[in-house]
Structure formats: structure tokens, C-alpha cells
Design a protein that fits this description.
The chain is an alpha+beta fold. Helices cover 55% and strands 14% of the residues. The chain is rod-shaped, with a radius of gyration of 46 Å.
């Protein structure tokens, strides 16, 4: 496998790991965003709804107001949570309302699981007003016993749109980004490795043609490729000088040998051999 392919594969693998981690992070952020949106929606809806509830002589008035606000269903329960006073309980909150009051603090958004669906809940206490004698009036219906619980219910399904939008954008966008980055990484790696290819081609040509005078000559640069090319050129220069010196020595020795043989005397390098004794032939 070529180095360019290896670098691109490693770069792409790293990008995929980063993309996977980003997907997990975005999923967590999307979940948190859904919870935050649910909290803001329920808090505004319940606070507004509670402001519309009125009492008359300590008794909850039979008022006709909205029971749905920005995706939230609005209900009122008796003080013990056992009786639904107003609203439509499409999620069967009434069955678990006493337990919710026991396990969760007012003014906080929490998740609950009913027989119908998973929901976000938020409730506050709406106190009743005493009559002129300081006593709480009672009626045959709507007995708040000092106040009512104003409850907002938001189905989790309505919040899935927030998460779906983020996740769809992520699943579509990240692969495209990784693909474009891989293509860009391939091009960058190819351009970065171009000097190495030139070095390889020059070395092959020198080896095939036995031309020690050839140089790579990448020009000026401070990166590793230019340093390698400069080192290679220096090495070839030293080899060329060594071979030239050897060729010159061989030529000189051959010339002297022929000259000495013509005079009947051995060359000096033969005379200097051990055992020759300086005798003339």
C-alpha cells in the first residue's frame, strides 16, 4: 500500500472517530435541548394558566379557559392530587398524581411514564383566598381545600422533533464532511509526497543509467523532504568524487605501468611491494 493511501486511510479513520464522538455529544446535547425546551414551554404555560384561575369566596370558580398551550396540556388537581378538577386527562396523570406530588418538588420539570406515554410534567400550587370571615368556603364541586395544583403535561413525542432535526442534520452532514475531508487529505498527502516521488525517480534513473552527476535539486525548503533531497545530493556528490578519484588513480596507474614496462622497470607501486627488494628487472 502506498504511503499516500496509508496517510489518507489513517486520516479518514481519525475523522470517523471524531465524527462518532461528535454524534454522541450532539445526541446528548439534543436531549438536553429537548429538556430545556420542555421546561421553558411548561413553565410559561403553567404560570400563565395559574394566573387565570380565580376564586370566589374561597371557592374555585367554574371558569372556561384554555386547557392547551404551545403543546402543553393544562390540568388542575385537588390538594391531595387524587381528583382532576379541570382539563382533559388524556395521559392518565390522575392515576399517578399522588405519587408525583410525593416524589417531586413543585416548580421543577421532570419526566414521568404513564400507561399512555412518556411525558414531561411541571406543577405549581395555586392557593385559594379566604372569604371575609377568614374561613375557606366549600362547594359541592371543586373543593380545593386551600388551593389547587396547576399541572402542565407535555408528551415526549412533541420534543422528538427537536432531537430528530439535530440528529438528521448530523447524520447527513457529518458523512459529507468526512468524505470531503478524505478527498482533501488525499490531495494534500499527494502534494506533500511529491518530492519523495521525485527523489525515487531520480534515484532509479541514477541506478539505471549509472549517471552519478545527476541531482534531485528540489530547490530551497526547510521541510523533511527538502532535507532528504539535499542529503541525497550531497551523498551523490561524494560518491561521484570518489569514483572520479578512483578512475583517475586507475588511469594513472595504468599509464605508469605501460611507461615502466616500456623501459624495462616495474612501476613504483610494484617496487614498493614486500619481498621485491628493490631489484630491477
Amino acid at each position: 500500500m502506498k504511503l499516500q493511501t496509508k496517510l489518507t486511510a489513517l486520516f479518514s479513520a481519525l475523522l470517523l472517530l471524531v465524527a462518532g464522538a461528535l454524534l454522541l455529544a450532539l445526541h446528548a446535547i439534543a436531549g438536553r435541548a429537548a429538556a430545556t425546551t420542555a421546561e421553558a414551554t411548561l413553565e410559561d404555560a403553567v404560570t400563565s394558566y395559574a394566573g387565570e384561575i380565580e376564586y370566589e369566596s374561597g371557592m374555585l370558580r367554574d371558569f372556561r379557559v384554555r386547557h392547551y398551550d404551545d403543546g402543553a396540556y393544562l390540568l388542575t388537581f385537588s390538594a391531595d392530587g387524587g381528583e382532576l378538577l379541570t382539563g382533559t386527562d388524556i395521559f392518565d396523570i390522575e392515576d399517578i398524581m399522588p405519587d408525583l406530588l410525593e416524589n417531586h418538588e413543585p416548580g421543577q420539570v421532570f419526566r414521568a411514564l404513564t400507561e399512555e406515554a412518556g411525558v414531561y410534567c411541571y406543577y405549581v400550587w395555586k392557593p385559594a383566598s379566604a372569604d371575609g370571615r377568614g374561613r375557606m368556603a366549600r362547594a359541592a364541586s371543586y373543593e380545593p381545600e386551600g388551593g389547587v395544583w396547576v399541572v402542565g403535561v407535555l408528551p415526549e413525542d412533541s420534543m422528538e422533533n427537536v432531537m430528530d432535526s439535530v440528529e438528521k442534520l448530523t447524520f447527513i452532514g457529518l458523512p459529507v464532511i468526512v468524505l470531503l475531508a478524505a478527498v482533501g487529505g488525499w490531495a494534500i498527502a499527494g502534494r506533500s509526497l511529491r518530492p519523495l516521488r521525485k527523489i525515487t525517480e531520480s534515484a532509479r534513473e541514477i541506478s539505471d543509467g549509472h549517471d552519478l552527476s545527476r541531482r534531485i535539486d528540489l530547490g530551497h525548503g526547510r521541510d523533511e523532504a527538502h532535507e532528504l533531497a539535499a542529503t541525497f545530493d550531497d551523498m551523490m556528490g561524494r560518491l561521484e568524487r570518489s569514483f572520479e578519484a578512483e578512475r583517475q588513480f586507475t588511469s594513472d596507474a595504468s599509464h605508469e605501468l605501460r611507461t615502466r614496462q616500456g623501459r624495462g622497470n616495474p612501476p613504483d607501486f610494484v617496487r614498493s611491494l614486500p619481498g621485491f627488494g628493490g631489484k630491477r628487472l
